[in-house]
Design a protein that fits this description.
Layout: H1 2-8, H2 13-17, H3 20-33, E1 39-43, H4 49-56, E2 61-65, H5 69-81, E3 88-91, E4 107-112, H6 124-135, E5 136-143, E6 146-155, H7 157-160, E7 167-168, E8 171-172, E9 186-188, E10 196-197, E11 202-208, E12 219-226, E13 231-243, E14 249-251, E15 263-274, E16 279-287, E17 290-295
Parallel strand pairs: 1-2, 1-4, 2-3, 4-5
Antiparallel strand pairs: 6-10, 6-11, 6-13, 7-8, 9-15, 12-16, 13-14, 13-15, 16-17
Length: 296
């Protein structure tokens, strides 16, 4: 049975739950935010951990929403096993499919951790926009509260060999490149990957999840990086500083506190040689679920 279930559930759940820095920070932020009698909405509850943290902190009712039916069923078992079935309700739907009358009352606090290495790829923006509009009280608190997207110019020679895929050990494997999604970022872990930083990390933009931007129609902005070393720029590598509230911050960057996400590499179509002080401008497309960096 366990083998069958493991094939149905995304493999990143267990590494995420093993991320002690993430767990402890969310526990601290939720304990600070929850007041007696609060109604809490947990979007993408997974194992039910954040919902149980809210209940343990004193929330009157927690509605935990999980789109994956198998995971939702197991979350109900976990909630009951830990003695919170009287205060936590698990709904097997996407939060955008939940009707307001399925909640006992509009939420005073919305908690979520539907984030990926590129920050927004799991639907954090449309989900939080919808929840704050339909399922929460005006001025409801949000955990996480905000995030800063960081970027760095990087040379990644080992991974460059497959972005795009060409020659491996003298064989032309380029037809296999058809399976690569050139528009999607690649998850990398700079701490464990051969790489050369070619610029200092820079803040590209800030996102306030308490007032989420609407990028359902992609928006455009310009960003210019300044090279700090000589080399060939092969990717813009992204990570984020995640502010759970105004004091508790976690970083998914190299050497940061978060361990299970890694960073997101947006590959340039061709190497860009740079010298220290050189400006490298980009057109940046902002979508609800992605960021695209195109050299100008």
């Amino acid at each position: 049975l366990s083998g069958m279930l493991s094939g149905l559930v995304p493999g990143w759940h267990l590494p995420m739950l093993a991320d002690a820095a993430r767990n402890e920070a969310y526990a601290a932020a939720i304990a600070k935010a929850v007041q007696p009698g609060m109604q809490v909405l947990d979007i993408g509850t997974g194992s039910g951990l954040l919902a149980m943290l809210a209940a343990r902190a004193g929330a009157q009712r927690v509605t935990a929403v999980e789109a994956h039916g198998t995971i939702a069923a197991v979350a109900r078992q976990i909630v009951e096993r830990n003695g919170f079935a009287d205060r936590i309700t698990v709904i097997a739907k996407r939060s955008t499919e939940v009707a307001p009358d399925e909640l006992p009352a509009p939420a005073d606090l919305v908690v979520s951790e539907i984030l990926d290495a590129g920050l927004t790829g799991e639907g954090m923006l449309p989900s939080s926009r919808d929840a704050l509009r339909r399922l929460a009280k005006p001025g409801a608190a949000m955990i996480p509260a905000r995030a800063t997207l960081m970027a760095q110019l990087v040379s990644l020679p080992a991974l460059r060999r497959v972005h795009p895929l060409k020659d491996i050990l003298g064989f032309d494997l380029s037809p296999f490149d058809a399976f690569r999604n050139s528009a999607a970022h690649t998850v990398v872990r700079l701490d464990h990957e051969q790489h050369a930083p070619l610029s200092e990390p820079a803040a590209v933009l800030a996102i306030d999840f308490r007032d989420p931007p609407d990028w359902s129609r992609p928006q455009a902005m310009d960003w210019t990086a300044t090279a700090s070393a000589a080399g060939a720029v092969q990717a813009v590598v992204l990570w984020f500083e995640l502010w759970l509230d105004d004091e508790i911050m976690l970083s998914s960057g190299p050497g940061g506190t978060l361990r299970h996400w890694g960073q997101a590499a947006c590959w340039l179509p061709a190497d860009r040689p740079v010298q220290p002080g050189a400006a490298l401008p980009f057109h940046v497309t902002l979508g609800d679920n992605y960021f695209d960096f195109t050299p100008a």
